[in-house]
Design goal:
The complex is a heterotrimer of chains A (302), B (531) and C (335). Chain A is mainly α and 302 residues long. In chain A, 71% of the residues lie in helices and 0% in strands. Residues 1-21 of chain B have low confidence and may be disordered. Chain B folds into two domains: 25-242 and 510-529, Dipeptide-binding Protein, domain 1 (Alpha-Beta Complex); 283-503, Dipeptide-binding Protein, domain 3. The chains are: A mainly alpha (302), B alpha+beta (531), C mainly alpha (335). Chain C: It is a multi-pass membrane protein.
């Protein structure tokens, strides 16, 4: 890998602006990523405006309309576009409200994992020695369990519920951030600009946050996007196994778990929540791919 | 070498199977793996179905489909005047099963009976702790260790149980699963071979079916015992296909992969009934699902508040949405099939308006309630969370804010017993023996407070009645007392009685001779299948 | 090479100790009381409860229980299930072949489709094949597989009735397990139709479990190929007029395989997590379903032993991948 382009001596503000423009250029070239971004934006809007968009209260039970099929099927009713579940709740409304939970789960999990992972990675990389050893070994231990297995046992300990599921997933996702950050710190630590900053009397904390961190943001952003979709999938899986969000929460995985007994009788209660999960995760992964292509200089050149 | 041997065995078996191509095989889709094959060491119904009801017999047996006693391995018996000595005359010529792993050299005799009980009672018996963590829950909870003073071997075919106190239900107790008779000869052989663990893995008994093989979490195979003392069974092979998911069990039954199944999901029953290749037997379950308030805590200490809340619950909606019609609204704490059931009692009407008014009159405003929902599905309550969701919305209509609480099952059972419990719990009960005291006494008596009495309800007039009923000698008199007790129960409303479920047994229409059992056991002796 | 292996092993020792602490610690702080769970609605007398807790050894100080645990581990004793009263290791090994069979079939399927698809997509970069296959791969990668499994059941078992609903083989066939792998055992049994039955039972679970690894392998192969195809020597070879197929086959593919093999090795964790969901959906009697059941039944020793054995498994597979990697790529060894 040869560094063909030497950075021109320009102000940091202009450089940042140019980098951003560069990034957007490459990102918007990727059609999938742009579609993903649109879908994701739409989902965010749906989540925010759920009370306006949802035709019914997600918890309201229409006792005269148990397991009504979608509107276009025989026996369907126009006021329940995607049908109703076993106790007569409108599936569309539940899906709309469910988007709040999925996005919330992704956001919270990634935030926790990101903050914890970066902090641990910075500490490990910067201080080295036994601190590094201990932290990284703990990360190794966490990573040597398959993620879902560890999350399951963690939730079993903490008690089933959405909050605990989020904590468990954050715990299993953060080692990736810690490893990335540590590797970046180790790589950057002895670069000239860091040494220069150090000689100029910058404090360690300042060095860590102001100087080194911005230089390893790219892989962290890509990892964060990946973790976002993983968090949604894992939370849904936990919900499906009865260890995630608890009914009557309209979380998509939990809705699927409740619907399982109707698999041969009412296809709509099974199909739509899964489809919602797939679309959301797919959109985020599309964005992630776009980000990686735009931020990874290696692939950019080829 | 070992592999080669195994392969040889496989080929031999294959030949054997091919030879019996016309064998009649009955496949039962069972809901769970057996915990083991030693019925005395467990309390779960699936374990009993797979061990005591196939491979084993007892001294006396429940009549098929009933709770009355008939002779089993004991042909006759007599009880001494003082009720302290039970002498059993054992059936002669009974053979233990011959299997790949054991060939009996002698017939069943008194030694087997003594072994089967003493291994559970005598702490110094080498079989008392033959495998790690083994314990004898039923034997202990029936108080047999103190009840049985001695078991005397009179001769080869006569044994006498000497009791320390008279105990009317003793005979019925001996028909229960934990009292199954094992082969002492087999046990001795296992002990000599140093393979005592196998007693819990490869059963040998005198029962109608001989154990062949168990593939963990997948299949249990039996063949009809050719030497069964009561005649060989009409079917040749019996297979338990372990299938935990009820929807999958139903699907397998429809596809002909099994011939009979237990515990269908309420949602599937309609479809199963509509299938012309199937028939669905049903029976009122000996059970009740209830919603217990903590009567020690305000405002639930006031009967009028409890009554008002009861009136806010739309029970029919629960029957429709949760039981999918496979149950009936409960008005009394005991099931209608039980003697002593008071059918004259009128249920509280579903009337949110009146309920709201009653709450206001009682001075209850902005009530916030924790609503406990069990995390597991039971025959009396297929989906407690769904029930809780329905009740939550019912309560909201009368201005009561309910928060659904759930926790791990063991924790749930423990914390719901607590006298200081915050909230009202959904729970239920399945009867053991068909006696009203098994419901009213156990679940609502003063002794049960802090334990099985989830309402923590100790009300003297009620307590007096059930205590009187317990010692009364004739059933008519007892029934009257229990009927009165139910009137008091209804007035005081410590529970909302939710439902009695119906138990269904879907099977292929080729199956004949299956009898449903009131206490939820699945027996396949006497069952036949058309080719 | 030996030094490399020993270095790797030495590195694993503290991780292993960490794993034992986690397996032991986690399970010991699980709420819920296994004795109460065994008693069910009927309850249990406090004295009897205390007696049973003592019998299971739950009443002693934690550190004592831990040392005890290590001591027993060192003797190959992974504990005894509270439910079946059998050794956890025996239980695990009984069910393990079912999971291995499923996992192997899934990874083979994923590799057989994923690598050619990735190579072709890379070679024909930007073509409709590239776009469609990579689009499909991304959908596969985003798939909630528990839902995917349900959909396949609805379609193939419910509507079309092509495949059986659950289990490993039709109950008509009965032969004692020789290898534990149903595909092999059914062939060895010599029973007509047994193999076909085993295959039809295996088909849907394999597809479901293979979905994510397949997507990952295809994507990884493509990007590794692209990278290699962009390197100087490949360009040179191409410039020299060597036919594309030879360039791809000889030079590029071999070098591109290095990261792909690592990717395949790393799928083991994904496979086990997937096995939990897949086995639950298809009632497949393997270790994934067993873990779930054990967690719900509060079978402490089984959860503990299972957690540890799974972690060891992952560790061993990763070690093998590392070694393979070192073997193919000598540069790594000296790093």
């Amino acid at each position: 890998m040869s560094n063909a382009t030497l950075p021109a001596p320009i102000s940091s503000g202009a450089m940042r602006r140019r980098a951003l423009a560069d990034f957007w250029f490459y990102f918007s070239e990727n059609r999938g990523a742009v579609i993903g971004l649109w879908v994701f934006a739409a989902l965010v809007l749906v989540a925010i405006f759920a009370p306006v968009l949802a035709p019914h209260d997600p918890a309201q039970q229409f006792r005269d309309a148990l397991l009504t099929p979608p509107a276009w099927e025989a026996g369907g009713r126009s006021e329940f576009l995607l049908g109703t579940d076993a106790i007569g709740r409108d599936i569309l409304s539940r899906l709309i409200y469910g988007s709040q939970f999925s996005l919330f789960v992704g956001l919270v999990v990634v935030s926790i994992a990101l903050v914890a992972g970066i902090a641990l990675g910075l500490i490990a990389g910067f201080f080295g020695g036994w601190v590094d050893t201990v932290i990284m070994r703990v990360m190794d231990v966490i990573l040597s369990f398959p993620s879902l297995v560890l999350a399951l046992v963690l939730v079993a300990i903490l008690g089933p519920g959405l909050t605990n599921a989020m904590i468990a997933i954050a715990v299993i996702l953060q080692p990736h951030f810690a490893r990335l950050t540590r590797a970046a710190v180790l790589a950057e630590k002895n670069r000239e600009y860091v040494i220069a900053a150090r000689l100029a009397g910058a404090s360690r904390l300042r060095l860590m946050f102001k100087t080194i961190l911005p230089n390893c943001l790219a892989p962290l952003i890509v990892q964060a996007t990946l973790s976002f979709s993983n968090a949604i999938l894992d939370a849904a899986a936990l919900g499906f196994l009865g260890m995630g969000a608890q009914p009557p929460t309209p979380e998509w995985g939990t809705m699927l778990a409740e619907a399982r007994e109707f698999i041969l009788r009412a296809w709509w209660v099974v199909t739509f929540p899964g489809l919602a999960i797939l679309i959301t995760v797919l959109a985020i992964n599309l964005i992630g791919d776009g980000l990686r292509d735009a931020l990874d200089p290696k692939l950019k050149r080829s | 070498m070992k592999l080669y041997k195994k392969m040889l065995a496989a080929t031999a078996l294959a030949v054997l199977m091919a030879g019996s191509a016309s064998a009649k095989t009955l496949v039962y889709c069972s809901p769970a793996s057996p915990e083991g094959f030693d019925p005395a060491a467990y309390t779960g119904g699936d374990t009993f179905d797979a061990s005591s009801r196939t491979a084993y017999n007892r001294l006396v047996e429940f009549k098929h489909g009933e709770t009355t006693i008939e002779p089993g391995l004991a042909e006759t018996w007599e009880v001494s005047e003082d009720g302290l000595e039970y002498t059993f005359h054992l059936r002669k010529g009974v053979k233990f099963q011959t299997t790949d792993f054991f060939t009996p050299t002698r017939e069943f005799n008194a030694d087997d009976v003594i072994f089967s009980f003493e291994r559970q009672s005598k702490k110094d018996d080498p079989w008392h702790a033959y495998t790690s963590g083994v314990s004898y829950e039923y034997f202990d909870s029936m108080e047999f260790p103190t009840l049985i003073k001695e078991i005397k071997r009179v001769d080869d075919h006569t044994v006498t149980f000497v009791l320390s106190r008279p105990e009317a239900p003793f005979l019925a107790d001996l028909a229960m699963d934990f009292a199954s008779i094992l082969s002492k000869e087999y046990a001795d052989k296992l002990q000599a071979d140093g393979k005592m663990d196998n007693l819990n893995q490869a059963p040998v008994g005198t029962g109608p079916f001989t154990f062949v093989a168990y593939q963990k979490d997948a299949v249990i195979r039996y063949k009809a015992n050719p030497d069964y003392w009561n005649g060989k069974q009409p079917i040749d092979d019996l297979v338990f296909a372990i299938t935990t998911d009820p929807a999958v069990r139903a699907q397998k039954l429809k596809a002909g992969e099994c011939h009979i199944m237990s515990y269908p999901a309420p949602a599937d029953i309609e479809g199963l009934k509509a299938d012309s290749n199937l028939k669905v037997d049903e029976q009122a379950g000996l059970n009740v699902a209830y919603f217990a308030y903590n009567t020690l805590k305000a405002p639930y200490d006031k009967p009028e508040v409890r009554k008002a809340l009861n009136m806010a619950i739309n029970k029919q909606a629960i029957i429709d949405a949760v039981f999918q019609g496979s149950g009936q609204v409960a008005k009394n704490p005991i099931p209608p099939t039980m003697w002593g059931y008071n059918d004259a009692i009128k249920d509280d009407p579903y009337d949110p308006e009146a309920a709201k008014k009653m709450l206001e009159e009682a001075g209850v405003k902005d009530l916030k309630m924790k609503l406990w929902a069990m995390p597991v599905s039971r025959p009396y309550m297929p989906n407690a969370r769904r029930t809780a969701e329905l009740m939550q919305s019912d309560f909201a209509k009368v201005g009561v804010q309910a928060e659904i609480v759930s926790m791990e099952w063991g924790e749930y059972l423990k914390k719901s017993s607590d006298k200081d419990r915050d909230g009202s719990v959904i729970l239920g009960w399945t009867g053991d023996n068909g006696d009203p005291d098994n419901f009213l006494g156990v679940l609502l008596g003063c002794a049960g407070v802090g334990n099985n009495n989830r309402a923590q309800w100790c009300y003297q007039p009620f307590e007096d009645l059930i205590q009187k009923a317990k010692v009364a000698s004739n059933q008519e008199e007892r029934a009257k007392l229990y009927e009165e007790a139910q009137v008091i129960f209804k007035e005081q409303a410590p529970w909302a009685t939710l439902a009695h479920s119906t138990v269904f047994m879907p099977m292929s229409s080729k199956v004949s001779g299956y009898k449903m059992d009131p206490v939820g056991i699945h027996r396949f002796d006497g069952v036949d299948i058309a080719e | 090479m030996l030094r490399f292996i020993f270095g790797k092993l030495a590195y694993l020792v503290p991780t292993f100790i960490g794993i034992t602490i986690v397996a032991f610690g986690f399970v010991r702080v699980l709420p819920g009381d296994p004795v109460l769970l065994m008693a069910g609605e009927r309850g249990i007398a406090p004295e009897r409860h205390a007696q049973l807790m003592a019998q299971f050894g739950f009443d002693r100080p934690l550190w004592q229980q831990y040392l005890d645990y290590l001591w027993r581990l060192a003797h190959g004793d992974f504990g005894t299930s509270l439910i079946t009263k059998k050794a956890v290791l025996t239980e695990f090994l009984t069910l393990f072949p079912a999971t291995v069979e499923l996992g192997l079939c899934a990874i083979i399927l994923a590799t057989l489709i994923g690598i050619p698809a990735g190579v072709l997509a890379a070679v024909k970069r930007g073509s409709w094949f590239d776009q469609i296959s990579m689009g499909t791969a991304l959908v596969g990668y985003s798939m909630p597989i528990f839902w995917w499994g349900l959909l396949l059941i609805i379609l193939f078992s419910g509507i079309l009735q092509w495949t059986p609903v659950s289990g490993r083989i039709s109950l008509l066939y009965f032969f004692p397990p020789v290898t534990g792998f149903m595909l092999i055992d059914s062939l060895l049994s010599g029973q007509k139709g047994a193999f076909a039955s085993a295959v039809s039972h295996l088909a849907l679970p394999t597809i479901v479990l293979a979905t994510i690894p397949l997507a990952v392998i295809a994507r990884q192969t493509r990007s590794a190929m692209l990278e290699v195809l962009g390197e100087d020597y490949v360009r040179t070879a191409r410039a020299k007029g060597l036919p594309v197929r030879r360039v791809v086959g000889l030079h590029a593919l071999r070098n591109a395989m290095i990261p792909v093999i690592t990717t395949i090795g790393l799928q083991i964790g994904v496979l086990i997590a997937g096995a939990i969901l897949t086995e639950t959906i298809f009632s497949w009697p393997g270790i994934g379903k067993w873990m779930i059941d054990s967690i719900f039944r509060r079978d402490y020793p089984a959860v503990q032993g299972g957690l540890l054995l799974i972690a060891i498994l992952v560790m061993v597979v990763n070690l093998i991948v590392d070694l393979l990697y070192g073997l193919i790529n000598p540069r790594i060894r000296h790093n």
